[in-house]
Amino acid sequence: MSHFLTRRGALTAAAFAIAAFGAAPQAAFAQAPIVIKFSHVVAADTPKGKGAQRFKELAEERTQGRVKVEVFPNSQLYKDKEEMEALQLGSVQMLAPSLAKFAPLGVKEFEVFDLPFIFKDAAAFRAVTTGPVGADLFKKLEPKGVKGLAYWDNGFHIMSANKPLHAVADFKGLKMRIQSSKVLDAQMRALGAIPQVMAFSELYQALQTGVVDGTEGVPSNFYTQKIYEVQKHMTVSNHGHLAYALIANKKFWDGLPADVRTTLEGAVKDATTYANAIAATENATAMDKIKASGKVTIYTPTPAELNEWKKAVMPVHKEMESRVGKDTVAAVYNATGFAMPK
Question: Cβ(232)–Cβ(297) under 8 Å?
């Protein structure tokens, strides 16, 4: 009997010891920082990459270490198609995907941003994203568990291929890489090309091996991903516009302590101002470096050639109304002062 009591006493003592020992790590855990994993698919030295880094610095500094932001560039964690699901599952807390990535979630209205030649300049783009249209689109993401925080501008698209792209006829039969977007698919088909959806991380090799003939994109991405090394011709068409949405897992964002969330909202605002300001500079610098490489011929279309391109792709606007939403297209036309080519 005494042996049993002794044994029971020893077990109780052990339990107390475990409880006491367990309390210390728990106390330490209470002080552990809130970790935000921020994943994206482009290089760290692009406008998006630098914007993500600026957000990290501002968030950590202003929360005095209560928040730790881990940035994973260049598809280190997830490729294009995987990252949105990872955000919804909470495997990452923040992303900055291009706006074409929201249609697979069922929010097809975002594809309005892909309509060819819809923005005449950066000011037209801002009129949409900083106004009621941009806010309404973000609201549509919330039932999907996604919180829209800001729009990041990354400038206008150029086209590239291993042959000159001057007239619409030059596109005939070319396999052109696009992001997954029905609008971009329709745009390439309207030009006579064959669209090929492909992850951004696979593009260089695909161009190098001839799996695709050409692509579209912004100069900063063409430079950092060395696209100019595997393409002979580029055309400054400014036909499309690349933008990102800085987004968070809604449950995570809403669950943050109120003071932390307010501080992070300020960091988002300032990182957005920074990212938008450097985009134009970075694209211009990248274009200069691509020219200086001497590896590619850069062509600027004449107004007549550009008008021919515009007329060729304008049916896409009408064709996509049923998908994107007639009201959304009309709201963007209204905000930008869009006019059909004559």
Answer: yes
pTM summary value? 0.83
pLDDT per residue over 298-328, tens digit each?
999 999 999 999 999 999 999 999 999 999 9
